[in-house]
Design goal:
Blueprint lengths: L1 E7 L8 E7 L6 E10 L2 H7 L16 E8 L11 E4 L2 E3 L5 H4 L11 E2 L19 E5 L4 E2 L6 H4 L5 H11 L7 E5 L3 H12 L3 E6 L5 H6 L4 E4 L3 H6 L4 E6 L7 H5 L2 E9 L11 H5 L4 E4 L5 H14 L5 E5 L3 H9 L6 E5 L5
Helix pairs in contact: 4-5, 4-10
The structure holds NADP nicotinamide-adenine-dinucleotide phosphate and zinc ion (ZN).
């Protein structure tokens, strides 16, 4: 076994604290990489707090992981010692169901294996995430990371990036479309960057008036403060797409009202409680309410390659692992500009 240092929650009631554990030995198809940076996703907080379902504890969060390869198994083809590597939300899947066969491992019909708060395919070994010094991952689930981009700012692409990229590509968002990005946090700011890069006219819908200047710097064309009834009224019936990245309960009916006829609201945010949706909000204007979960491995690599070609990374605030609790507190207040990234050197 490989000894690793990490930060774990021992229960939903306790703060993260140092916790040493062991990773499996590198198998023939595995890549081991030492973690240099790990992004902090709101899903980390949802999961350590049991917001969605009872978690597996101790829990080492983190699924925006980048680092450098230190060992590869005998059958590994695409990585060698010294390469940059990354891992997102997935570390395994059945690899043979209808969805896996179409590079949609995130929708594996037998259930994918999440990077943390999940079980390996043996059904009994818990997975531990990127708030740790090293990780062992099956090669298929390891991403190539370009050395052209700032490495720390690349980490959030592994979740916030792919989660916003995948629905924009699936629904063909681009030139001639009016896209609204709801919530300017980690996911939202990547949604703005991708929406702009794909040619859409982008509006940020935000509860935080003070983020307007940032939204414009990120490339957004318009900004609507959603707590201002007049501004919301003026936006009524104007968007082809809304990318909903909000982490807390909010009024879906109000936002569906902002769509044009045939508009699509793409939900990627996962509030702890279910939303109430009136059929009337959908049928007037033949609107669609849809969802999207992260992205498959092939699509994640395509997104990373697009980012390397177009110089796209996340806007980050680097923290030491010892500051994770205050970082979570700021995240709950919507005060993230626009992704915390942990410098894993602070853990060593
Ligand atoms: P984040 O950085 O905390 O951003 C969320 C943003 O939502 C906030 O910055 C805030 O933006 C807005 N917001 C917060 N509370 C709100 C409220 N009560 N009403 C309206 N807006 C509110 O979180 P994140 O890391 O981007 O994650 C966002 C959500 O996506 C989380 O629920 C996360 O679990 C989920 N997620 C889903 C997937 C997937 O596969 N679908 C993948 C990753 C994450 P403003 O200040 O602009 O209002
Ligand atoms: Zn995430």
């Amino acid at each position: 076994m490989i000894p690793v240092k990490g930060y774990a929650a021992q229960s939903p009631e306790t703060d993260l604290a140092p916790w040493d554990f062991q990773r499996r030995e590198v198998g023939p198809h595995d890549v081991q990489f030492d973690i240099l940076y790990c992004g902090v996703c709101h899903s980390d907080l949802h999961q350590i707090k049991n917001d969605w379902f009872p978690g597996i504890f101790p829990m080492v969060p983190g699924h925006e992981i980048v680092g450098r390869v230190v060992k590869v198994g005998d059958h590994v083809k695409n990585f060698k010692v010294g390469d940059l590597a990354g891992t997102g939300c997935l570390v395994d899947s059945c690899m043979h169901c209808e969805n896996c066969a179409q590079d949609l491992e995130q929708y594996c019909l037998e259930g994918n294996t999440q990077t943390y708060n999940g079980m390996e395919r043996d059904g009994s070994s818990p997975t531990y995430g990127g708030y740790s010094t090293s990780i062992v991952v099956k090669e298929h689930f390891v991403l190539k990371i370009s050395d052209k981009l700032d490495l720390a700012a690349t980490a959030p692409l592994l979740c916030a990036g792919i989660t916003t990229w995948s629905p924009l590509k699936h629904w063909g968002v681009g030139k001639g479309h009016k896209l609204a990005v709801l919530g300017l946090g980690g996911l939202g700011h990547m949604g703005v960057k991708f929406g702009v890069a794909l040619g859409a006219e982008v509006t940020v819908l935000s509860t935080s008036p003070k983020k307007e200047e940032d939204a414009k710097k990120l490339g957004a064309h318009h900004f609507v403060v959603t707590t201002d009834a007049e501004q919301v009224k003026a936006a009524h019936g104007t968007f082809d797409f809304i990318l909903d990245t909000v982490s807390a309960p909010h009024d879906f009916n109000m936002y569906l009202g902002l769509l044009r006829t045939n508009g699509v609201m793409m939900c990627v945010g996962v509030p702890p409680e279910p939303a109430q949706v009136a059929a009337f909000s959908l049928l007037g204007g033949r609107k669609s309410l849809a969802g999207s979960g992260i992205g498959g491995i092939k699509e994640t690599q395509e997104m990373l390659d697009f980012c390397a070609e177009n110089g796209i990374v996340s806007d980050i605030e680097m923290i030491n692992i010892q500051d994770i609790t205050p970082a979570y507190e700021r995240m709950v207040k919507g005060d993230v500009r626009y992704r915390f990234v942990i410098d894993i050197a602070s853990l060593k």
